[in-house]
Design a protein that fits this description.
Strand content: under 5%
Helix content: over 70%
Number of helices: 21
Number of strands: 0
Largest sheet: none
Order of helices and strands: HHHHHHHHHHHHHHHHHHHHH
Shape: elongated
């Protein structure tokens, strides 16, 4: 380390001294480093009246923010400037009114007395803070002097230097951990410390490789600090960059020396990088006020949104939870917004918090009333558990299985209970159900082979039906009826295959019936037409009577179709059983429509016969 590195105590900026003199006080919504730094800027508020000055003085005297000397001096100057101006104005008014200047008496000013009292409080606060800081600095000075004396003793015993090397390194670490000392002692203290440190290194009887290794290691560390300082020029957060720079300076000071031929070069590089950061730090605050006003606008908008949400009516837990998420999102947005102007920062935060507190307070009251509901639901579920336990040992597989399934459906209709209790009740209920169904599965395991055999038989019947559907020939209807009877006589199949088999069976059957109906209908219509002449020979009104009979039959079929279709509208397809019933009814409706079409064609044939007779 050389003389230029010693400048670090005072050469960075005036801000370092101020940070050493006044401890930083940060609260969540009260002050920020940006605001404190902004207060250090030369631009000041222009006070128009003594009341404005007094208000600010009282705020400082009784607030939590550490009083800043430059602002206190400025307030004092502003107050007495206004005070003297008022006094001179009163004197001028007195003289202009014909008064004798020699007889004029200055009247006591109550504002001045209040100002002095508040300034006394501020002065006492600053003195107390100063005394505490000075006491701490004196203690630090004492500790560092003791370290210097210890290193000095090592220097005076060169033959012990190698043995005390680790002790020397420990003293260096202790020195780094001790903070500020009295400013008037700092430079001298540092020079003495550095003097004996360098003397110790000169006296060290380590081999040349070890000494060069220390120099090399220190150079690497200082080079990394230079790179870090240069990198800070790219840091978007100027305040953060400035404070990081201070830490880098502290680290730089505590690193041991480098070789003499590189000391000037490495120090110049570090100093140049520091100058860039310091300039950016000074220029940064020009835009602070505009950003703070923008932040105030954003926070005002968030307040309005939270207030609007809090004013909405919540009809159930879903509404409360949905709007809770919305407010939490707004709170997350709030945290991303920086500080508002100092005079509005606390007020806007209190407005936002009040709206949130109102919402969450009413939410807590709402959910408090749910306790009775939860209790009632828990009792209902316990009652179902008792019913399930009463059935769990039954061997009436079909009836008991249906009852337990109904209990499970009823369970789903019961409202919520607290999660931990709900899980416990569900496990107890499910355990009783599982006990029965496991026993049923074990008891009916022997029927599975029979069901599998039935499945193969029904598939064989379906295969024969498919063959018939593809071929033409006589007696198809009789063959189909025989296969249908055979299919229906076969017993149960595995439950998992039931629906698939059902669909496959009825698909081929529907095709066969459709083809058979068309063929039969044509044959019946031809036979009917051939017999019309015989019907006409029975009498003059025979055809009309037959037509009237067919028309009544047609209307009856039409009414029956309408009844079926109305009933279909009320059926639910939520279950597979319901779906099968609907398919069956649709087949009946289609057959009725086919029969109705045949009747209509017969009526048309009678009408054609009548027209032929008339012609």
């Amino acid at each position: 380390m050389d003389s230029q590195e010693n400048i670090l105590e005072t050469g960075i900026s005036e801000e370092i001294k101020q940070e050493q003199a006044v401890p930083e006080v940060v609260t969540e919504e009260a002050a920020s480093p940006a605001e404190e730094a902004a207060e250090e800027q030369p631009e000041r508020k222009v006070y128009e009246t003594k009341k404005e000055v007094l208000d600010r003085v009282k705020e400082i005297a009784h607030g939590e923010v550490v009083p800043q000397k430059d602002e206190v001096d400025y307030l004092k100057t502003a107050f007495y400037k206004l005070h003297i101006a008022e006094r001179e104005a009163r004197l001028k008014e007195y003289i202009d009114g014909g008064g004798d200047p020699e007889q004029y008496q200055i009247t006591p000013d109550e504002d001045e007395e209040v100002f002095k009292a508040e300034m006394g409080i501020i002065r006492e606060r600053r003195q107390q803070l100063f005394r505490e800081q000075e006491a701490e600095k004196e203690e630090n000075l004492k500790k560092k002097l003791e370290i210097i004396e210890k290193i000095k003793a090592m220097v005076t015993s060169p033959e012990e230097a190698n043995k005390t090397y680790q002790e020397f390194k420990a003293l260096q670490q202790e020195w780094r951990e001790i903070k500020a000392v009295p400013a008037e002692k700092a430079n001298e203290l540092w020079r003495n410390y550095q003097l004996y440190v360098e003397q110790f290194y000169d006296l060290l009887k380590l081999n040349s490789e070890a000494r060069e290794y220390d120099f090399k290691k220190n150079l690497e560390l200082k080079t990394k600090l230079c790179e870090a300082a240069e990198k800070l020029a790219e840091e978007d957060d100027v305040i953060s960059a400035f404070h990081q720079l201070q830490k880098l300076h502290q680290e730089y000071r505590e690193i041991g020396p480098v070789s003499k031929d590189l000391r000037e070069e490495i120090w110049t590089r570090f100093k140049n990088a520091s100058t860039i950061i310091n300039k950016r730090h000074q220029q940064h605050f020009e835009g602070i006020r505009a950003r703070e006003e923008e932040n105030l606008q954003k926070k005002t908008e968030l307040c309005e949104k939270v207030e609007a949400i809090a004013a909405e009516e919540n009809k159930g837990s879903g509404d409360w939870e949905r709007r809770t998420k919305e407010i939490i999102e707004l709170q997350a947005q709030w945290k991303t917004i920086g500080f508002a102007p100092q005079k509005m920062n606390v007020k806007i935060f209190e407005r936002f918090r009040a709206a949130c507190d109102d919402f969450f307070g009413r939410k807590a009251e709402y959910f408090k009333t749910l306790k009775d509901t939860f209790k009632e639901n828990a009792e209902k579920k316990r009652a179902l558990i008792e019913k399930a336990k009463a059935l769990q040992d039954s061997t009436d597989w079909k009836s008991t299985g249906d009852k337990l399934i109904n209990l499970q459906k009823e369970w789903k209709t019961i409202g919520m209970v607290p999660k931990k209790l709900g899980d416990q009740l569900w496990e107890e209920f499910l355990g009783a159900c599982n006990k029965f169904f496991e026993a049923r599965n074990a008891a009916t395991a022997g029927t599975r082979g029979e069901e599998q055999a039935n499945l193969e038989k029904k598939r064989d019947v379906i295969a024969h039906l498919k063959v018939i559907a593809e071929e033409a020939g006589d007696n198809i209807q009789e063959k189909v009826q025989e296969l249908v009877a055979e299919y229906q006589a076969i017993g149960h199949v595995p439950f998992r295959e039931k629906d698939k088999l059902y669909e496959e069976y009825h698909a081929v059957l529907d095709k066969l019936y459709k083809d058979l109906n068309i063929s039969v209908a044509k044959k019946r219509l031809n036979n009917f037409k051939q017999n019309l002449k015989q019907v006409a020979e029975r009498g003059e009104n025979a055809l009309d009577n037959e037509r009237a009979r067919l028309f009544r039959q047609y209307e009856a079929m039409k009414q029956e179709i309408q009844t079926y279709e109305n009933n279909l509208g009320f059926l639910s397809v939520s279950s597979k059983k319901g779906n099968s019933l609907i398919d069956e009814m649709n087949r009946k409706v289609q057959k009725l429509k086919d029969d109705m079409n045949l009747v209509r064609e017969k009526i048309k044939a009678i009408d054609a016969e009548n027209r032929e007779k008339e012609s």
